[in-house]
Specification:
Elements: E1 3-14, H1 53-65, E2 69-70, E3 73-74, E4 77-80, E5 90-93, E6 100-109, E7 112-125, E8 129-132, E9 139-142, E10 149-155, H2 162-179, E11 191-201, E12 211-214, H3 219-238, E13 246-251, E14 256-262, E15 272-273, E16 280-281, H4 284-292, H5 298-309, H6 313-320, H7 323-335, H8 339-357, H9 368-379, H10 385-398, H11 402-408, H12 417-430, H13 432-439, H14 446-456, H15 463-475
Parallel strand pairs: 12-13
Antiparallel strand pairs: 1-10, 1-11, 2-6, 3-16, 4-5, 4-15, 6-7, 7-10, 8-9, 11-12, 13-14
Helix pairs in contact: 2-3, 5-6, 7-9, 9-10, 12-14, 12-15, 14-15
Length: 479
């Protein structure tokens, strides 16, 4: 039987507010354990939560950016469960009355563009973190993360392949970063994903028994975990065996999913409205105020880069995947208005170096003005494109300006025709057989002659000028 994969994703995005969702404790990452806590986020008796207005506005930004309907009234609920890192034994979340519903976003894979529905976006508080001692069977609890604000973004079960799941997550993270409401760091846990996956007979509309996948801290791990789970479930169904509804963990080292526990249902959490928090009313004026604050988002920026700069769609997609990269491109182009050349250098040279060093572009040692200056040196034939690549590496390693590197190392192009003709004569005298072969029709030897001249000038000769002078010399009967 042919099986169709059905995937829905639940994404938790940690919001970049300075304080927690219901108290004034800091949200800064990396502090000493249990130093960013107070009676409210530790759930002490008699305390009352107070909602952080910025959390609501950040959540509204994401809702508007993903075409959701923002509810005029929403409220918080208590999600009851016991876990050592949950001090109150319940999490303040939203259930029956979420902030936003009914959105969508478009994703692009090698198979084209598809629209993925978004069921809901709601606000909630994060739990703490368990720290396991590797030397002894003991676990510690760090409550610094308790109460850090989250939005949960729940997709419709519209995703059909692991590749689409990864594309959806990348698109979602790009939007969060453009809005500057979440840093999208999967390794630090500020962008987390749970995946629900099931298989059904191809051509049917019902849903199979789903499993939930956890513990995936990169796009690659999400895709690999889903690929494994598709194979595992298909093997069970092909043998006539049942898929068990459960939560499974991804073991990246072994490349397998492992059963963790039975999957909970909503009624297991005994949701009820939180009596300490009044319902939240959001009027149209507030929504419009937030809408006016939205920046240019990735899709709009991609379209503008194609229209304004004449870039291919592929270039525009690469450059706008990160707001910081897009800003870098525009800064370079402002000083060196040749967009395609700038795009080529950023995509081939700059991003390669950053990827090798696992750096973000905000850590780039080459400021936009220096890259623009380098490209201007090439455009004015001060240095060749080949030398420019060597200069760029020096710029990346030292942070020095390209003009200083060119002068200090004597890398200016040789453009003096008299000097070049002396070298060309020498090359032709040293290679009489190749000269005869070229004149007999083997014009591909021109590359050999250019190479010899470039070698003697240590790459500093102007290639176009050398090419012209060689052709003139070789076409002359008296040469």
């Amino acid at each position: 039987m042919e099986w169709e994969t059905v995937i829905g994703l639940e994404v938790h995005a940690q919001l970049l507010t300075q304080s927690k969702i219901f108290c004034g404790c800091s949200t800064a990452f990396g502090a000493a354990p249990n130093t960013h806590t107070c009676p409210v986020c530790l759930g002490m008796p008699g305390v009352l939560p107070v909602l952080n207005r910025t959390v609501v506005e950040y959540a509204m930004k994401m809702a508007l950016a993903t075409h959701c309907r923002i509810a005029s009234r929403c409220r918080f609920a208590r999600k009851n469960y016991f876990y050592p890192d949950l001090p109150k034994n319940y999490q303040i979340s939203q259930y029956e009355e979420p902030l936003a519903t009914g959105g969508w976003l478009d994703i692009t894979t090698e198979n084209g563009t598809r629209r993925i529905g978004i069921t809901r976006i709601h606000m909630e508080e994060d739990a703490g973190k368990l720290v396991h001692d590797e030397a002894q069977p003991v676990s510690y609890v760090d409550f610094n993360r308790t109460g850090v604000p989250l939005i949960e973004i729940v997709s419709e079960p519209d995703i059909r392949t692991p590749e689409e799941a990864a594309a959806y997550l990348r698109t979602l993270r790009d939007i969060l970063r453009y809005l500057e409401i979440c840093d999208g760091n999967m390794e630090e846990g500020s962008f987390r994903c749970d995946a629900n996956i099931s298989l059904r007979p191809a051509g049917t509309t019902g849903f199979g028994v789903k499993t939930e996948l956890k513990n995936m801290n990169s796009f690659r791990h999400v895709q690999r975990a889903l690929e494994f789970e598709v194979r595992r479930q298909r093997a069970l169904l092909d043998k006539g065996e049942a898929v068990v509804q459960e939560t499974r963990l991804w073991d990246a080292g072994r490349g397998v999913t492992i059963s963790m526990r039975g999957k909970e249902e909503a009624h297991d959490y005994r949701y009820f409205p939180d009596p300490d928090l009044v319902p939240l009313t959001i009027d149209e004026a507030w929504i419009e105020e937030v809408r006016r604050s939205l920046p240019e988002l990735p899709d709009a920026k991609r379209e503008r880069f194609v229209a304004q700069y004449g870039l291919p769609a592929y270039d525009a997609a690469v450059l706008t995947a990160s707001k910081d990269v897009a800003d870098y491109f525009e800064a370079v182009t402002a000083d060196f208005p040749q967009p395609k050349t700038v795009s080529n250098w950023i995509m081939s040279e700059l991003l390669r170096e950053l990827k090798r060093d696992e750096r973000d572009i905000d850590q780039c040692p080459v400021p936009p003005a220096h890259l623009a200056e380098l490209l201007d040196l090439v455009d004015k034939n001060v240095i060749s494109g080949k030398i420019a690549k060597a200069v760029f590496k020096e710029m990346y390693e030292s942070g020095a300006a390209p003009s200083r590197i060119v002068e200090d190392k004597g890398l200016r192009q040789v453009t003096d025709e008299g000097v070049l003709m002396v070298i060309i004569d020498q090359v032709l005298q040293e290679n009489p057989k190749e000269v005869d072969a070229y004149r007999q029709g083997k014009e591909k030897l021109m590359g050999f002659f250019i190479g010899q001249v470039m070698q003697k000038t240590r790459g500093k000769a102007n290639p176009q000028l050398v090419n012209r002078l060689l052709k003139e010399k070789l076409s002359s009967p008296s040469a």
